[in-house]
Amino acid sequence: MTLLTHWPLAGLRLTTPRLELRLPNLDDLAALASLAADGVHDPTVQPFTVAWTDVAPEQRARSVLQYHWRCWGEWQPENWELNLVVVRDGIVVGTQGIGARDFSIRREVGTGSWLGRAYHRQGLGTEMRAAVLHLAFAGLGAQYATSGAYADNAASLEVSRKLGYREDGIERHSVRAKPAVLRRLRLTAEQWQQHQLVPVQMEGLPECLPWFGLA
After folding, report:
1. What is the model's pLDDT at position 11?
2. Which stretches make up the N-acetyltransferase domain (predicted)?
3. Measured CA angle at 91 (ends 76, 111), to 5 deg
4. Measuring CA to CA, which residue among 144, 131, 215 is closest to residue 184?
């Protein structure tokens, strides 16, 4: 028997013209942790609802490892978080996540991601989210995908606009002890079909379907 016998998610691959998205191995996680330590956004702003980057570099690195391990250990078909490492030309450039609760009933996923600062403004954010949206809608039969970004996070909001998301209300948060408005976004299966900008190939999905709560 191999790891895939007990953990078929390790064989899941999403590929786009420039990127491969896969479940990270330990070497990938080490590279991702180092990328986080080097910084993933302008330190004068805080784009995340959980301010995990407002700590020392070594704490950021450790939190990346612990978060991935926690998601692996807590995986259940009715409550899952799939965090894929994003690789370009053999180099880890970031991570793209997709998750759901009671997916077999609700048919709704949420997404989140980050890139190392050296890889911003190259269109990679659009490409990697397009990959997991293809997994959600074409692979898993999702009906909706949700996302969110603070009102001043123009880059994230632009990615969502390109991919067909529509406004879905706001939330008020506290960021660094100041009020901040988070814009919720929603994408339907029909809107996704009209905004497929990136060709995506999937490998290893059939074996994983029970892990997503699907027969």
Report:
1. 97
2. 43-188
3. 35
4. 144
Centre a 10 Å sphere on the Cβ of residue 200 and count the other Cβ atoms it contains: 20
How many Cα atoms occupy the beta-carbon half-sphere of 161 within 13 Å? 8
Task: Measure the CA–CA gap between 68 and 186, rounded to whole angstroms.
Answer: 25
Domain with 53 in it: 3-96+107-141+198-212
Measured CA to CA in angstroms, residue 149 lies from 40, 126, 137, 152 at distances of: 15, 14, 21, 8
Q: Give mean pLDDT, residues 19-48.
A: 90
Q: Which of 164, 160, 200 is nearest to 182 (CA)?
A: 160
Token code pair at residue 61: 């690195």
More confident residue, 38 or 44: 38
- DSSP label of 23: -
CATH classification at residue 59 = 3.40.630.30
* Residue 171 clears pLDDT 90, i.e. is over it: no
Output the pLDDT for position 161.
Answer: 93
What's residue 40's pLDDT? Answer: 81
- Counting the structural domains of the chain, the total is 1
Per DSSP bridges, beta strands 144-150 and 20-22 are: unpaired
Q: Flag whether 172 is in a domain.
A: no
On whether residue 166 sits in a domain, the answer given is no
- Give the pLDDT score at 155: 87
Helix, strand, coil percentages (3-state) for the chain, rounded to 5, are 40, 30, 30
Residue 185: inside a domain: no
- CA dist 130 and 211 (Å) reads 22
Q: Does 131 fall in a domain?
A: yes
